[in-house]
Amino acid sequence: MRLLFDFFPIILFFVSYYQASFLTENTIIGQLVNPDKPDFINATIIATAVAIIASFIQVGYHWFSTRKFERMHIFSLVLITVLGSITIFLGNPAFIQWKPTVLNWLFAGVFLGSMVIGEKPIIQRMMNEQIALPENVWKKLNLSWVIFFFISGAANLYVAFYYNITASADARMDTWVNFKLFGLMGLTIGFVILQALYLSQHITEDDASDEKETGEKP
User: Fold this and answer.
1) What is the predicted pLDDT for the residue at 215?
2) Is the pTM above the cut of 0.90?
3) To the nearest 10°, the Cα dihedral for 151, 156, 161, 165?
4) Whether pLDDT at 176 is above 90
5) 3-class secondary structure for the chain?
6) What is the pLDDT of residue 212?
7) Is 80 exceeded by the pLDDT of residue 32?
8) What CA–CA distances, in Å, run from 118 to 124, 131, 146, 147?
9) What is the pLDDT of residue 2?
10) How far apart are CA 114 and CA 123, in angstroms?
11) Percent of the chain, pLDDT > 70?
12) Treating both helix axes as pointing N-terminal to C-terminal, what angle do 8-18 and 39-66 enclose, rounded to 10 degrees?
């Protein structure tokens, strides 16, 4: 459920992109588009506007539910508002296509910086209350997130601007929209599963050693 909530704006971006004609004809969003522009440009503008609104709803709902802000949501909201607004006003999808890369590389920089600035890696600060791990495991876990964020950002950049460059502009945009939802979500789910398997090994070992230390002698 948490993953779906984090991907809420992306899911609505995907749906709005492929339902742009319906939204244009039946909602006030249609006023944002220029009928003289290609359909995929107008679809991107509509989807971007919906995603910006969804991001504000996401941040607002999380605050009302927990009375605190999630940093990831705030970073994403700022980026999609800035880059999305430029996309809407200029009618250039390139700006919104850069957003996942900028966000992922920003997170990569923050996670990497936390390994040299501060007493603990940021992943340890986030999860330290839930699980106990050796210091070297926390560092490996934090570094794995750095690598994941970097790869995710690079993959988005490749699909958006370098993949299948001989195809038509609308076909390439369709490919990127599909990747933005299914590709990035798939990478995230796969990484989280691998991370859980890695953590389970160390947690099991720790539990086993604790049982040996606290167990009664016959």
Assistant:
1) 46
2) no
3) 90
4) yes
5) CHHHHHCHHHHHHHHHHHCHHHHHHHCHHHHHCCCCCCHHHHHHHHHHHHHHHHHHHHHHHHHHHHCCCCHHHHHHHHHHHHHHHHHHHHCCCHHHHHHHHHHHHHHHHHHHHCCCCCCCCHHHHHHCCCCCCCHHHHHHHHHHHHHHHHHHHHHHHHHHHCCCCCCCHHHHHHHHHHHHHHHHHHHHHHHHHHHHHHHHHHHHHHHHHHHHHHCCCC
6) 42
7) no
8) 11, 20, 16, 20
9) 67
10) 9
11) 90
12) 150
| pLDDT, mean of residues 142-146 | 94
- Please state, in angstroms and rounded to a whole number, the distance separating the CA atoms of residues 66 and 85: 28
Residue type, 166: T
Q: Which residue has the tokens 């440009």?
A: 41
Calpha distance 50→29 (Å, rounded): 9
pLDDT at 211: 42
What are the CA-CA distances from residue 149 to residues 24, 26, 209 (Å)?
35, 38, 33
In the chain, where the domains are located? 1-91, 93-210
